[in-house]
Amino acid sequence: MLAGALVALSAAPHAISPHTIAVAHADPEPSTKELRAKALKLADDLEQLTEQYNGLKVKLAQSQRAAKVATENAERQEKSLQGIREKVGTLAATSYMQGGSDPAVSFVASQDPQAVLDQAATLNYFAKQDSTKVLGLMQAMQAAQRARKAAEARAQQVKQLRTELDSQRKKVTDTYEKVRGKLVDRDPSQLASLPVIGTGKAAQALRYAMGKIGRPYVWGAAGPTSFDCSGLTMWAYKQVGINLPHYTGSQWNAGTRVSRSELQPGDLVFFYADLHHMGIYVGGGKMLHAPHTGDVVKIASMSGRPFAGGVRVA
């Protein structure tokens, strides 16, 4: 084999040169301390992004309310417009029979009444009229058009804000998951110090439960100083207004079933065929749970126990 390699090199003496050989140098992996510092900086960035997210939610709600009001106003003006159209019908019919080019007729019949109103002659005509019916028709049509345009503008704003909202949500989640994953792979114990992402009740319940890390397992206990496995989940969800029974079998039926790949932070996770143990999913294949007598509430890997399923309560 060595002889064959030498023959190949002699046949192409310029194919490989010491000056063209690239030596790959891998960037040194950050230390756990550096990774933690980066994670803490990220936590601050995530807080800013979360407030932007909350701000967009407020603006979105405001735009939705404004769009609803504008649409209702347009509908009211349309009803008013239809009534005035019927009242002015006689005026239009008479003008047609007389063969005249009454601007009122053009105004009533036109598909684009604003274009008719924009004509100087038409405006001059209406300025000289004493007919409250004609003036009322003009005002109602203009008001309906303004209201409709306002509704369309608000609807467009709602759509744009929703896009921004979704973009911010994805940015927060993706950035967090990337850095959290690196840190947890290096040191699983760091997971407890990282923020829980999300504004829903499941994320809030998980935050409450995380605050109980280190509290002792006591059979039949449901907080606030000691817990068993279903007592911990019951207590955490009670803090956000959701009442769960103090029994794993009942909590198994308290929400929507989700697969292991669909789990999100705050979901309930169950183990063994008889569902005799459970915890709260925190992400990265790990859960927060109250293990057994002599142990404390802590974060642990879900591996090593037969996974029965997940339940999304909120």
From TrEMBL:
Annotated InterPro entries: NLP_P60_dom (IPR000064), Papain-like_cys_pep_sf (IPR038765), Peptidase_C40 (IPR051202)
Coiled coil: 32-87, 141-178
Domain of life: Bacteria
Keyword list, A-Z: Coiled coil, Hydrolase, Protease, Thiol protease
Gene Ontology molecular function: cysteine-type peptidase activity
NlpC/P60 domain boundaries: 199-314
A Pfam family annotated for this UniProt entry: NLPC_P60
GO biological process: proteolysis
Family: Belongs to the peptidase C40 family.
Protein name stated in the entry: NlpC/P60 family protein
Organism listed in the record: Actinomadura syzygii
Lineage: Bacteria, Bacillati, Actinomycetota, Actinomycetes, Streptosporangiales
